[in-house]
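Q: Protein A?
A:
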Amino acid sequence: MRLELRRLGLLAAMAASLSLPPAHAGLFEDEEARRAILDLRQRLEVLNNALKAQSDDNAQLRRVLVDLQGQIDQMRADVNKTRGAQEQLVRDVSEVQLRQRDVQSGLDERLRKFEPITVKVDGLEFQVEPAEKRDYDAAMDTFRKGDFVAAQTSLQRFVQRYPQSAYLPSALFWLGNASYANKDYKASLAQFRQMQTLAPSHVRVPEALLAVSNVHVELKDLKAARKTLEDLIKAHPQSEAAQAAKERLAKLR
């Protein structure tokens, strides 16, 4: 800008210097007149060259400005393109994160189906597999409904499928009761005995002994029935089953 102002000032000065001398110039001698004309021509040529240079500079400046504007437009387009790519990247990342959460949630849900579950049965707390709990609960639901035939089948299947289950003493106790209800006395006796052998300190052992005495009565073995009641009273004197055993024992004598 300063260079352009200096050029404009120079042009103005040259233009002023080209003004013809006053009227008394006609008094110059011929030699002086020629020198004056040559000087004016030289000044005019300098002025023309300056104007041409100024015109070339303006054209070059316009080209520079046009090129600069093109670069700015290209930069703006690149920025918009980059911003659009970034926004798309953010959307893609968000979508991937949502899918990852869905996959993780589904995986956690599937894993939970196999994770051990803590249960409490007959005063005992232990862990079992989800399928194990499902099968035991289903068998017990059948027993509670009074369908002892189906309950005996379900509980027998459970005992065979889960021989190491912590449910086993309870499952054998209820299986013995289901077999007794179905008048399958030999099976009932074997199941109660197995339960006592497996878990002699189980909370339901006194009830199991009382049930065993009932099985002996049904099998017409009163001696075995009395012996079982006596063992019950001796081993578990404070239990409710022992009180019931005393009453039954009095009737069997």
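Q: Protein B?
A:
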Amino acid sequence: MRMQIPLPNKKYSIIYADPPWKYRNKKTGGSMISGSENKYETMSIKEICELPIQNICEENCALFLWATTPLLPDALEVMKHWGFKYKTSIYWRKIMSMGMGFWYRGQVEQLLLGVKGKVKAFRVQKANFIQTKALRHSEKPIEAMELIEMSNLNPKIELFARKRTEGWDAWGNEVNETQ
């Protein structure tokens, strides 16, 4: 289990999370050393579920949770455990990438939207589809945050962040306090 830093003592209307999912296969790819376990510390579904996310949620809160196709059931379990009800998804197609996978080559990730309390539908007049070049391992496209910002809900936090983004609080063991 990764060493946890305390969550902020603040409540948020938007929670954006890309957990360090632990896959059941520690070694993947042609080299057999390219899996997430070799890039960063991962967490089990149980460890992710046990994070006290309810402590940082406003009464009415939206969760945007990244899920890879093989771990979709686990992501839905995390969402439910954190107290959110699934509403819809945003799909990211990674172009210029073969993708990984045992059944098919995974070229998409889902950004699940769940709500707790009374969050009004955003009615954003944009497609729920992003198509961009694949980025560094586990790095997500800025277009996802831009879509989320159209909800006009504040304050916002990115969990498991690697860098700071203007207008967002950041929490994660890779965020440099001086950024």
